[in-house]
Design a protein that fits this description.
Elements (H helix, E strand, L loop, with lengths): L1 H6 L4 E4 L13 H22 L2 E5 L12 H11 L4 E6 H7 L4 H8 L5 E6 L15 H10 L5 E3 L8 H17 L1
Parallel strand pairs: 1-2, 2-3, 3-4, 4-5
Helix pairs in contact: 5-6
């Protein structure tokens, strides 16, 4: 996937995969951490060679019980110590797992250099502007922080359909950025 991302002109690849990173009840969490670290370390040379940043996504429970917060993802990133391995901000995940508003999460973590990508999605699993989450504070924070990377829209519930979600999300985000 790293090579495919590069071949297609991509520069960021996100590792979410909640079902593939559960720590079983009889498993030692520290051993699970070591196994995950070994696997992520094995990806780093590929990512470095391909010019891709591989981002570990923090996901909330109950999606997974392993690396739920950006702080936990940052700990893994810091242990691996490669600019080709970072974490990212998923607005739905952060709004469910972090102890502060998403814009404050961005303000805390972007200056560290550990966050390299942003997914915009509502807690209701739809696109930005299709639920109750407000994205203006986050977008303002990202502008103040000088974030110039891509922001992707990551809905899971495509209402009315994929093209409709894309059009609505793009219009909503552009409207916020233009104000």
């Amino acid at each position: 996937l790293v090579e495919l991302c590069s071949d297609l002109g991509g520069r960021v690849l996100v590792h979410g995969s909640p079902a593939q990173r559960q720590v079983e009840p009889d498993d030692d969490p520290s051993e699970a951490w070591k196994r995950a670290r070994t696997q992520f370390e094995s990806i780093v040379p590929l990512a470095e060679a391909a010019g891709v940043v591989y981002c570990l996504e923090a996901l909330p429970e109950p999606e997974t019980n392993f690396i739920n917060t950006i702080g936990e993802a940052a700990e893994m990133v810091n242990q691996i110590e490669s600019p080709a391995f970072r974490t990212m901000l998923d607005t739905k995940a952060a709004s469910l797992a972090e102890d502060r508003p998403v814009e404050e999460v961005a303000e805390k973590w972007f200056p560290t250099g550990l966050l390299k990508h942003v997914h915009l999605n509502d807690r209701n699993r739809r696109g930005p502007g299709q639920g109750n989450d407000r994205f203006a504070p986050l977008l303002s924070a990202l502008q103040r922080l000088g974030y110039d990377g891509y922001m992707s829209v990551e809905p899971f519930d495509y209402v009315p359909d994929g093209k409709g979600v894309a059009a609505h999300s793009i219009g909503y985000i552009r409207g916020l950025l233009e104000n």
